[in-house]
Amino acid sequence: MNDPARPERDRPWVFRTYSGHSSAEASNALYRSNLAKGQTGLSVAFDLPTQTGYDSDHPLARGEVGKVGVPVGHIDDMEVLFREIPLDQMNTSMTINATAAWLLALYVATAERQGVAANQLRGTTQNDLIKEYLSRGTYVFPPEPSMRLISDMVAHTVNAIPKWNPVNICSYHLQEAGATPVQEIAYAMANAIAVLDAVKARDDVPDDVLPEVFARISFFLNAGIRFVEEICKGRAMTELWDELGRDRYGVGDPKLRRFRYGVQVNSLGLTEAQPENNVIRIVLEALGVTFSKKARCRALQLPAWNEALGLPRPWDQQWSLRIQQILAYETDLLEYPDLLDGSHVVEAKVEELKKAAQEELERVLAMGGAVAAVENAYMKQRLVESHTARLRAIESGELPIIGVNSYTETEPSPLVDDDDASILKVDDAAEREQIERLNAFRAKRNAADAKTALQGLRDALSNGENVMPPSIRAAHAGVTGGEWADTLRELFGEYRAPTGVVARESQVTDDANQRVRERVHACGERLGRPLKILVGKPGLDGHSNGAEQIAVKARDVGMEVVYDGIRLTPAEIVQSARDEGVHVIGLSILSGSHLILVLDVLAGLKDEGLSLPVVVGGIIPEEDAESLREAGVQRVYTPKDFDLTRIMGEVVDVVEASAGIG
Amino acid sequence: MSWRRAQALADLGERLLARERAAVAPALNLVDDRRPEARQEATALLAGLEETVLFGGARRIGLTGAPGAGKSTLLGALVQRLRSRGQTVGVIAVDPSSQRTGGALLGDRMRVRSGSADPGVFIRSLAARDQLGGLAEAARASVTIVAAAFDVVLVETVGVGQSEGEVVDLVDTLVYVAQPGAGDLLQCMKAGILELPDVVAVNKADLGPVAERTANELMAGAGLGERTTEWVPPVVLVSAQEGTGLDEFESALDDHVESLGPNGLQERRRRGRDASVRVSLERRYGSHGLAAWGGHAKLEARLAEAQDRSGFALAAVLGLEIEAALRGGGSDL
Prior knowledge:
The complex is a heterodimer of chains A (about 650) and B (about 325). Helix content of chain A is about 50%, strand content about 10%. By secondary structure, chain A is α/β, with parallel strands linked by helices. In chain A, the strands form three sheets. A five-stranded parallel β-sheet of chain A has the order 1-10-9-8-7. Chain A has a five-stranded parallel β-sheet with strand order 2-3-4-5-6. In chain A, strands 12-11-13-14-15 form a five-stranded parallel β-sheet, sandwiched between helices. In chain A, helix 11 links the parallel strand 9 (about 260-265) and strand 10. In chain A, helix 8 (about 180-200) crosses helix 13 (about 345-365), helix 17 packs antiparallel against helix 18 (about 470-475) and helix 23 packs parallel to helix 24. Chain A is globular and about 70 Å long. Chain B is built from eleven helices and eight strands. In chain B, strands 4-2-5-1-6-7-8 form a seven-stranded parallel β-sheet, sandwiched between helices. The longest helix of chain B has about 50 residues, at about 245-295. Chain B is globular. The relative contact order of chain B is 0.12. The interface of A and B includes residues 377, 559 and 579 of A.
């Protein structure tokens, strides 16, 4: 019998905060202060050039360096990032995908320089390319070589870094892209099967090692505000994973079939309006993934309350860390066995989710699995449709969002009375300084060594050898991320994933939509040809869900839409706008690089003598929106603008005004 | 049309023939414009232009196939290869538009882009605005303009049975992109388009046996179509994604043009021109209007005696005659 005052408690999950910005040095300071506040693991956010394999001085990196994460271009950056953080005592999660092998190589090389052997390292590389094709957009290579790189890392870590999670199957981003719980479960499982099958097919992974491999596959889930359903989702996935290991991969030991997952709770549901309410949402979502002991997450990172406004400051992140600590240390949550065992209601819901998810999983497997269902755009189209349905429900009020489409009356918020001070501003000097450091690094390294190491990497990959050993050698030899990725680009080629914007047409015929449709049609009559819009994403931000929804909506109100997708230079956008003869340009940017990139587009249009109106959407602070409007942008939309029908009406206004036919 | 406008139009034509890239988009905007004064200007521009490019100008290649066959990826690979040999490329990509709203998602152009704003690549998307024969007319106008300014024109359409028939009249070589295991042969037979393609590319050859099986089926089937020429369409296995089979694919394209020879090519373009005049007049005046003027026999005779004339010019001239005949007919009432 335990002392009632001091009951036996479960060990809490790992507390993380997804962070990184500006430079390795600034991020290192942030990590050390977060660890001092009681954070128990690190979660590294890399900037977009690092994620997509471009050095900081590449044209596509313009405006993106240090914005959504830390720039890590080479071994020196990585050493600075983990200065005074002993890697043998740290559990580090890295949100890195296309270039995961490279960043893991830098991490191993950094540990070795700290005197820590690779087999001591603990942590996770996200390394899930399927969801990049579907949602996040930081892929580089085609599916086949991408799957090869992933399975290389699995094969390497299972022996050399046994405590590492080489792959973190992310359904998180699928929910962000609109996935229903059923889709989230089904596509995550399909994705894991694709990875496991690729590893199973390798000659260098004997069958008796497969259970170990299975045990190292971890997941990264999303948790939305419907927290009861989210608890059931976690339980359903726990059961499905166990069954999959037993039945498909012959994993005998139940311990190796445990469903291990980390969580970042929903960013999708965080609102720009009355942002203080987001704290309550985050608490409830955190409860959803910790409440059921059987399906409790292993690691949790919570977004900050002001994520829909911009980048969080250290204090904002601290507030979210405190939520975790209060949940784990003050409440009695960790004192009980599973609280839901025996609940008929929960059991029935879990069964319902499992059954529907299994049906969807079978559909994907029948197509040839997750890779095939990426290439034929099946999964992507389903996600775009789900997302469209969700946005429509918000627009119609059927899905209440407090402060957004209901209960919008509010006192002025003391948290955001000074818009400028309520988010983190990345200093514009960060990019220039990072490029200076890169040039200094290139000047001081032994160029011959780097060249030899790159040739070694090329040879190894051409011969079908594992990517990891030559990458670790390249990290030590002073190769840069851009050089590493370019070597692979030459061998593997680059890829553009299907966009899913050809998803089925919506069947909305309410009055508001009908009115906009008539206006679009009338505007086209006046213009002489149908209203044509270009939708695209300049820069490296691959979060295309918003742009896709705008494209689909524009199509549904009768516009001709040129959807140019992601990763475009301003010059490409200008060229496309001119060649396609569009009447208006819609740009979407969520990475914080909006000022530089939009101004580049405007300058390019001016150089071409094109007077085309431009509208911009994204996570854009009011002050920046003002600057954009002053520079000539016609409209700026932010997450609070949920009424897509109204936005379309305004696009017509903008075109009419620009063509002088208003 | 004012003298000033006429002058500006003549300039636009000159600039296109001088291969000035900046003139291409405005010309395409003009021929897409449905206002009456713009129609008149477009006809003037196109007639002048086609006199020059009917038997010259760019080489024209069409790619058609079911959605998901990998046309865009193959198109992208072809564009890159043409660019690497210093050829400039204009792409006309046709997407179906919604029957209900008129809206269109002019889809995944990003798969064709090379990742830079390359002035040697021009891409224009057209919505097939759901009008019988309308695609052909709009696409023909666009091809004429692009053919003046670039070395190669690529026309991409979603194959749904009807559009192939329209595209075949626009291009020198029609490629059917088939995907392994999709029952493409059956689809072709059903749609009655077996005899149309000049080259068949079975994409996604990386799928191995199933791709080979599809290729064999199509090869056997290629002999089933009725053909007026000696040319037997080669069936090439390609993987646009992996870059395999592209040499053979390009050779097949070259072989086809070679098999046509200069006379054959001229003949083919003339056939395309004839078809476009027929479609255009039928669309505008119906069989009743044509009959009032003298019917199909008269039309064929007029086409034959104006062998080298622009189809746009011819359609305009004959249109005026038909309208006069209809007015004459109207006075009897």
